[in-house]
Amino acid sequence: MYLTELVERWTAISWRSQIAQCLFQDLQSFAALRRTEPECFWQASRLKPSFEVPLRREKNSLSLVYGSAIALKHAPHGHLSARDLAQHLTEQWSLRCSHPVPPPVEVRSAVTLRYTETGWLMLHLCDRALSSWINLAIHHLADGYPTPPLMPTAEKNLTLGDRLWPIQHGHARCQTLRTLMDEMDRLSDRPTHSHHTKNHFALHESTLKLSGWDVQAADPLSLDPVEKALLYELVEVVDHLAEGLAQWHLNPDRSSQMQTSWLKLALGLCDRLQQVDRHSHLFDPHQTAITHRQRQRLLLLTQLILAWILQTGFGQVPAAEL
Questions:
Q1: Which of 130, 269, 275, 285 has the fewest CB atoms inside 10 Å of its own CB, making it the most exposed?
Q2: How far is it, in rounded angstroms, from Cα 132 to Cα 116?
Q3: Cα separation of 301 and 269, whole Å?
Q4: How many Å separate Cα 139 from the centre of its chain?
Q5: 230 near 298, Cβ under 8 Å?
Q6: pLDDT digit string (tens) for 235-284?
Q7: Based on the domain organization, do 57 and 119 belong to the same domain?
Q8: Average pLDDT, stretch 279-305?
Q9: Cis before residue 225, ω within 30 degrees of 0?
């Protein structure tokens, strides 16, 4: 029952499955409306009918992009233009809030279809959608999960960080990042050096309130490129974990390497955090209280993910197998 509940919760917040399914349904309905077959205006290249495609980042772009434009190649013999298709799908997403974005955020601001001159439709997720996703992930992960299976009953009062003892390597790195944050906060009055250059993006005030941040109207929230890259990778890792759990639930083969691969994913995420630590000079030392709180929330989400992996039982892999 507990495993089934986890599958249901994570399926509900999986960007990959949600958007892929929505896109497929819209394509089918649009084809029916125009009385034409989907193959007349799109081609699936290296993709299964389920449209389960990996995330990637375009060069020089801060947007998340799905695969090779989800292989929406406009066929020359189609009965409609690719621009019309993009406009139709964008309008459909604006009217229907089926994505995991809390209202009243408009879906139009979360999902964007861009038509390229070569005939591909690129699906983007914006910063507002990413912010809302992080808030939902924190809410679901922190919703009273039971004590990890390896934790003695007498130690139930230990903190979340203490419960990460089977992954001491990762826990130590999380604590290193927390120390880094505190140190940066203390040094906030030091002058900015030339190597602290950054390229900020801003999140709207209403988005921050929806995402649980307590901000004032004049408080901007800015992230470094390295921070934003970490957020994106966090989303991608969690998607992989959710899909892995769903597959394991459908085919619970205890002899498989699923347990080991889950821990490797967790340690890989910690490796990414360690890279942030090593390249901390990319952060601006003049951080405000709001940016400090945002980084604390990022660390909290990371620790919750690692704890959740333990609580599902996938942490019971001998360290020698890693």
A1: 275
A2: 28
A3: 12
A4: 14
A5: yes
A6: 555 555 545 555 555 555 555 555 555 555 555 555 555 454 444 433 44
A7: yes
A8: 52
A9: no
Domain boundary among 125, 141, 167: 125
Name every residue whose Cβ is closer than 8 Å to that of residue 243 and which is 6 or more positions away in sequence: 14, 16, 17, 52
Torsion of CA 294, 296, 302, 304, to 10 degrees: -110
Tally the domains of the chain: 2
Query: What range does the domain containing 97 cover?
Result: 2-125
Task: Dump the DSSP string for 100-154.
Answer: S--TTS-GGGTEEEEE-TTS-EEEEE-HHHHHHHHHHHHHHHTS-PPPPTTS-GG
- Do 121 and 145 lie in one domain? The reply is no
Closest CA to 150 of 263, 321, 313, 320: 313
Tens digit of each residue's pLDDT (9 = 90 or more) over 96-113? 433 443 333 333 344 455
- Please tell me whether residues 28 and 121 are part of one structural domain: yes
The CA–CA distances, whole Å, from 291 to 92, 182, 222 equal 35, 12, 7
Considering the domain architecture, whether residues 181 and 106 belong to the same structural domain is answered as no
Residue type at position 107: V
Q: Is the pTM of this model over 0.70?
A: no
